[in-house]
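My hope is that you will study the record closing this message with an eye to the fold:
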Amino acid sequence: MLSSRDFEKAVQLAFLKFHLGLGQIIGLEDGGEKVIREINIERDEGVRMDRTCFSLLAYADDIVLLGEDEKKVVDLCGRLIESAKKVGLHLNIEKTQYMKVSRELDNLQETETITVGQYEFKKVEDFKYLGTIVTQKNECQIEIQQRIKMGNKCFYVLGKLLSSKVLSKETLRKTEEERLAVFERKVLRKIYGPIYDTDLQGWRKRHNQELTELFNRPNIINGIKRSKLEWAGHAVRKQDSMVQRVLQENPKRKRPLLGRPRLRWEDGIKKEFISAGGAEYDHMDWKEVAENREEWERICSMARWSQWF
């Protein structure tokens, strides 16, 4: 009986043999792409694009054979099968299919299967290669629908997180605010992509100020600030609310704890209130100002558009 360590070594050895065998087939040596030798592909074989012919696409064990007609594809596939047998690799009949690509499919006579030696492959109207759906008529509608479906799936999975109001009730320190801002810029850089710098003669990541100008909307920190102020005003105006009672009673310890005191929720509200309203609100009680809905809404709006980056 194999131990876990012996089993791991056996798996690694099997994978190494598979990798070396596949490398011999498609000509991968030392990680570089080489011309396929065992099946002797000519330069004029395959599908011509501009002045180059493509007859084989390979990524790991995902291989696509290309040809201008069925006879050439059958011949190329047969040579690949024979080359694979030399290193002990065999074709997976269940995962191997064929497809004709043309703008005039209605005028073509297609068979439901194609025979290569002892193998018989089924015809398909589309297939997925390296995460992209390829169709007979080279249509993009199916791929777009698939991506929208995947996006909706991720969106609904994150539904509770996106609609959560927890951050508007939390006391955020400067460290947490910076982490949220870094994450937001990470997402924006992914959306807008890199920019070509003529001075550096190369592509680079967008700077923070460039992201701010492109986005031209309140950042995540300002959104949280506004939500905190809106919720605080609503809680204070509501009669006999738990938050109102806690703020009024303001419980204190008989014996203060050692070290620097932790930032309270009301301390954060006061800070955002003064930051949004300006110096004129420095000596005013935010709870009294919150009783005026119009004035409090104006302060919340100012907090949303305050500068962060």
User: Anything to note?
Assistant: The mean pLDDT is 75. The longest helix spans residues 4-26.
